[in-house]
Amino acid sequence: MSPRLIISALVVLLPFANGTARAEDSKEKAASVREEDGKHFDADGNPTFKIENGVVDWYTFSGYRRYHADCHVCHGPDGEGSSYAPALAKSMKNIDYGTFLSIVAEGRKNVGGGKESVMPAFGDNKNVYCYMDDLYIYLRARAVGAAPRGRPPKKADKPEAAKAQEASCMGG
Asked: Residue ranges of the domains in the chain?
């Protein structure tokens, strides 16, 4: 089964699992209430970050690295935006998990005001789709002001579950 098909199926099911689209995100809503194999989840079961004493969880750090490898060219360093694409550090406050997965996997095209903007689909790019949760977690932390600009100075060790998922997804 193709990764794009799997992601599309998840996107269709997530709104039913998590209720309606969330209102503006905040540090309180993004708070980790559960941890599973080093990955944190909020009260609604969405992936989230855990930052304590300046140490970010592995997934936030991985999201930072992946964002700056594949997304910052258009969306600017640290999600601050550019003349080419919006500031994700702002728009992510109003994008729920399912919508994020859908946009990244399928892309999006906006036409209005005499200009067109296109977000390409990354559902077939292993360097992106294998790390979509990591990207979401990092951008969510930036959006709610939990993660400052720049490379996190301290990170948690990579969990065994992250190593296994990466090997499985990347085919290694």
From this structure: 3-170
